C-alpha cells in the first residue's frame, strides 16, 4: 500500500507558538487540504503523527483535541480528502514518554497499525527537525516543508542525511506524484485495518 505520514501543525495547518488550543485556531495552510485530496485520489493513505503537549500542559483537553480533529476531517472531506488516522502524543516534555517526537514511538505505533515491519521508504513530512528525527530510525523518506517552523529554520545543514526540502505540502505532493510508480509502491501490499 501507499502510505505517508504527516505532521499536523505547520504542515497541514498554520502553527502557533501559543499552541492550537481550539477549533477556531485550527486554520489550514492554503493548498494543504487539496494536496492531501490529490494524494488520496492517487491511492495514498495518510496518517498523521503529532505532538500535542498542550494536553499534558493543561492548555486544552481531549474533547477539545477531538473537536479540532473533527474540524480538520470535515474541512478535508469538503475537498474530497481523507486522513486515515491521527496518532498523537499528549505528554509534556517532562513526562519523558516514548512517543513525543523526536522519539519514534508514534511512528512505531503507525507501523504496528498498518502491520508493517518498518516504514522503509514511507514518506514522512514535517516542518521541524524533530519530525524528521522521529521517522529516521524506521527508514522513512524524510521531507521538510518550509511552512510553520520550517519557514524560520535557518540552518538546513542540520537536517538528517537524505532530507528533501519543499516549499509546502502542495509542492511535496506535486513532487511525490511525479515519482516513477514502482518507487512509490514498493512499501507493502497490505491493507490496514480501518482506523
Ligand atoms: Mg509541526
Ligand atoms: Zn508521549
Automatic annotation (TrEMBL):
One of its GO terms (molecular function) is D-glycero-beta-D-manno-heptose 1,7-bisphosphate 7-phosphatase activity. The record marks 50, 101 as: Stabilizes the phosphoryl group. Its EC number is 3.1.3.-. It is an enzyme of class 3 (hydrolase). The keyword Metal-binding applies. The record marks 100 as: Contributes to substrate recognition. This is D,D-heptose 1,7-bisphosphate phosphatase.
Amino acid at each position: 500500500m501507499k502510505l505517508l505520514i504527516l505532521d499536523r501543525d505547520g504542515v497541514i495547518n498554520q502553527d502557533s507558538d501559543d499552541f492550537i488550543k481550539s477549533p477556531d485556531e485550527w486554520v489550514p495552510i492554503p493548498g494543504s487540504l487539496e494536496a492531501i485530496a490529490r494524494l488520496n485520489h492517487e491511492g495514498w493513505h495518510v496518517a498523521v503523527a503529532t505532538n500535542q503537549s498542550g494536553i499534558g500542559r493543561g492548555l486544552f483537553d481531549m474533547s477539545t483535541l477531538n473537536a479540532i480533529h473533527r474540524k480538520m476531517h470535515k474541512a478535508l472531506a469538503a475537498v474530497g480528502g481523507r486522513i486515515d488516522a491521527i496518532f498523537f502524543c499528549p505528554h509534556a516534555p517532562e513526562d519523558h514518554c516514548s512517543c513525543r517526537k523526536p522519539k519514534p514511538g508514534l511512528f512505531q505505533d503507525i507501523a504496528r497499525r498498518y502491520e508493517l515491519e518498518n516504514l522503509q521508504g514511507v514518506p514522512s513530512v514535517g516542518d521541524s527537525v524533530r519530525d524528521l528525527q522521529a521517522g529516521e530510525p524506521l527508514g522513512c523518506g524524510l521531507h521538510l516543508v518550509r511552512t510553520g517552523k520550517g519557514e524560520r529554520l535557518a540552518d538546513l545543514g542540520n537536517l538528517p542525511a537524505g532530507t528533501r526540502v519543499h516549499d509546502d505540502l502542495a509542492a511535496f505532493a506535486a513532487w511525490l506524484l511525479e515519482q516513477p510508480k514502482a518507487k512509490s509502491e514498493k512499501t507493502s501490499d497490505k491493507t490496514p485495518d480501518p482506523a
